[in-house]
Write a structure and sequence with these properties.
Strand content: 15-25%
Distance between the termini: 37 Å
Largest sheet: 7 strands, parallel
Number of domains: 1
CATH class: Alpha Beta
Order of helices and strands: EHEHEHEHEHEHHE
Structural class: alpha/beta
Shape: globular
Number of strands: 7
Radius of gyration: 17 Å
Number of helices: 7
Helix content: 40-55%
Length: 239
């Protein structure tokens, strides 16, 4: 079983924490960034302290050709791929009627389409590896069809990711590949924590380690028979 992972959006925050956690578990890791080269190189260098191979690769994942190149380069440099964590996705908070066409496309492209481009390209590599784990990112409450006055394209994209992941789960389980979703709520690196924490049932945000633990569960042997599931890391928020 090869242990080779690609984590998108891993220059900092949640993606960086997940990539470093995978490195600590013995996975060779491809860190991905769009613009934050220095931060990503530093994170990649930190990962090598675990005795694994680590690389940093740039790509704009809203462009299908760059997403394809990212996956192919990661597989070439690491000697295959068995794990993908799709963490990339921009956020927009704005009244629905005021959203521009450009903003709509930016949120759908960076969340739903980027996840699709990367995953579609990586599936053959997972099959070649003989096992695989696809872990996509949605948001707390993303599996519920709930209106949102100020997050409409974002929540549409995240709900789309859940449907896409469930479809892959049914198709790929025969190939020893699982596909699951991690749905964080408010995290320790979220903006506006002082206003948000009082409304959280847990009265604290998720730590980056809390979210990494959810990813770690889905890649563990204990989760071999678990696929098409949504695991919320939200401390009871938006239930």
């Amino acid at each position: 079983m090869i242990k080779k992972a690609l984590v998108t959006g891993s220059a900092g925050g949640i993606g960086r924490a997940i990539a470093l956690d995978l490195a600590s578990k013995g996975f060779d890791v491809a860190f991905h960034y769009n613009k934050s080269a220095a931060a990503t190189q530093a994170a990649s260098q930190q990962a090598t302290h675990y005795g694994i191979k680590s690389i940093a690769l740039q790509a704009d994942l809203t462009k299908p050709e760059e997403a394809k190149s990212l996956v192919e380069t990661a597989a070439e440099k690491l000697g295959g791929l068995s794990i993908v964590v799709n963490n990339v996705g921009n956020f927009l908070e704005k009244q629905t009627s005021q959203i521009s066409i450009e903003e709509w496309h930016e949120i759908i492209d960076s969340n739903l389409n980027a996840t699709f481009y990367v995953t579609q390209t990586i599936i053959p590599f997972l099959k070649t590896a003989g096992w695989g784990r696809i872990i996509n990112f949605a948001c707390a409450g993303g599996q519920h069809l709930m209106a949102s006055e100020e997050q409409t394209p974002y929540r549409i994209a995240k709900t789309g990711i859940i449907i896409y992941t469930k479809s892959l789960a049914k198709e790929l389980i025969k190939d020893n590949i699982t596909a699951n979703v991690v749905s964080p709520g408010v995290a320790e690196n979220s903006v506006g924590l002082e206003e948000t924490i009082p409304i959280l049932p847990a009265k604290r945000p998720a730590t980056l380690q809390d979210i990494s633990n959810a990813v770690g569960f889905f890649i563990s042997p204990e989760a071999n028979y678990i696929t098409g599931q949504v695991l919320e890391v939200a401390g009871g928020w938006r239930l």
